[in-house]
Amino acid sequence: MTxxxxxxxxxxxxxxxxxxxxxxxxxxxxxxxxxVDADSTRWTQRGLGxxxxxxxxxxxxxxxxxxxxxxxxxxxxASIVEYTFSPLLEVYTYRFDNVPMYxxxxxGLVYLAALAIGRLAWVQRHSRxxxxxxxxxxxxxxxxxxxxxxxxxxxxxxxxxxxxxxxAWGPSQGLYVGAFVVVTYLELAGTTLGTWTWQPxxxxxxxxxxxxxxxxxxxxxxxxxxxxxxxPALLARWRRLTSPGQINQ
Length: 249
Hints:
Layout: H1 4-37, H2 42-60, H3 65-88, E1 92-94, H4 103-119, H5 121-125, H6 127-148, H7 154-169, H8 173-193, E2 196-198, H9 216-242, H10 244-247
Antiparallel strand pairs: 1-2
């Protein structure tokens, strides 16, 4: 019979391999979706949406209940932001002026990939180096967007400052390192392929925006923060509701 300690040791042994697999699958699928959608129809987008949900569920099947709830929180929060800032306020727009069906589950993949990067043994052993690299590369990118770019990127610089704050005081430094890698790649790929386009200024006309904003990972960090802070309470609440008998024992 396998003891609890043996099961835990086995899980810790498999975790680096599983995390690397998640990163590879998530980034590969995101790339495929963006390339296919660059010249697709609405029906193709719907098919990509169904497939993206399946990929997300498949990757979550061996994750803990806490990670599953965290991912769900990100999907909900990000979807609200998507429908508010894209079709409604038009801060950025997709090719068909909609929110493609693959976008909500895609946010779940982005979160899961960022979390998996933070769990990689190399990242954990060299957390200071990884953090410093993010600050240097992200800072240079933000400075270029603000000073040298054809479109002064004020929003990107603000979001980079948010990222600095998350790296300094956030509950999971590795997660924000991962978010910088995944979100920066996602934004550069998506805007290069024309899947979505950021407007030059925000709806007030006061804040200029790059295409994409240089510090987009800092904006995305608020989704991560919501997941880390809300998921434990939501999971505990769910367990109380679904297991009332255990409470009375």
